[in-house]
Amino acid sequence: MSSMAAHSFSPPLPATAPGAHPKPSSRRAATASSEPVQDVRERILDTASSLFYQRGVRAVGVDLVVAEAAVAKTSLYRYFPTKDDLIVAFLEREDVDFWGLWDAVAAQHADDPAAELQAHMQWIGERLGRSNYRGCPQINVAAEFAEQDHPARLVAQQHMVTLRSRLHGIAQRLGVPQPEALAAQLAVLINGAFVSSGLLSGEEATPVLQAAVQALLAGARAGNK
């Protein structure tokens, strides 16, 4: 939720204004063919990721990615045979970022699931408060494709399944009587926050999320009485 996520990672704003297509520098154009393969691929993916996130995947064509990345179109298609492959790579990298941060936070609270939840709300709230935050990449992309079997939509859906599964694991560790119900509520809270970030100021996001988690936990634990 990209990511969270977008899911979600918020790439930095492009250095140029929207719609401006800078000419490749002569140095970059001259050396592009001699760049290591991984560097060229990463430059293409970096450029596409920023454009996709800021403008939406349907609004960004291959020609724009090629112009902004200052590469030949043949180079793009060498690493990403179709635009769908490029979109999938964008989402998969967002997943790596999102879950890497999630795992790092979880490792700090392995013995305290309640504290882990609040810590997740802390970094998610901070992400929502970024000035260049444009929502969860996975949710954004899923909304752009009506086809249920579109490759990018499938990646986005798997992100949501993984989120629900991880929240279910936390709920089980909390020992609440209905962990599946709590996991569903937490998933709705997090995904709802990702698509409603414009309603919260940077200072509000974390306190609002943490208070909501407290309320959900209180309700879930009340079932034990």
Characterization of the model:
This protein is mainly alpha-helical and 225 residues long. The chain has a domain at 94-222: Tetracycline Repressor, domain 2 (Orthogonal Bundle). The protein contains ten helices and no strands. It has helices at residues 26-31, 37-55, 62-69, 73-79, 83-108, 113-128, 137-144, 151-174, 179-195, 205-222. Helix 5 (83-108) packs across helix 6 (113-128), helix 6 (113-128) packs antiparallel against helix 8 and helix 7 crosses helix 8 (151-174). The longest helix is centred in the middle third of the chain and has 26 residues, at 83-108.
Helix-strand layout with pairing:
Elements: H1 26-31, H2 37-55, H3 62-69, H4 73-79, H5 83-108, H6 113-128, H7 137-144, H8 151-174, H9 179-195, H10 205-222
Helix pairs in contact: 2-3, 2-5, 5-6, 5-8, 6-8, 6-10, 7-8, 8-9, 9-10
Task: Write a concise synopsis of the structure shown.
The chain is mainly alpha-helical and 225 residues long. The chain has helices at residues 26-31, 37-55, 62-69, 73-79, 83-108, 113-128, 137-144, 151-174, 179-195, 205-222.
How many individual helices?
Answer: 10
Strand content: under 5%
Question: What class do helices, strands and sheet pairing give?
Answer: mainly alpha
Helix content: 55-70%
Give the CATH class of the domain at 94-222.
Mainly Alpha
Mean pLDDT: 85
Low-confidence stretches: 2-32
Q: N- to C-terminal separation?
A: 35 Å
CATH topology tier name of the domain at 94-222: Tetracycline Repressor, domain 2
Tell me the series of helices and strands, N- to C-terminal: HHHHHHHHHH
CATH architecture of the domain at 94-222: Orthogonal Bundle
Biggest sheet overview? none
Radius of gyration: 20 Å
How would the global form be characterised? Answer: elongated
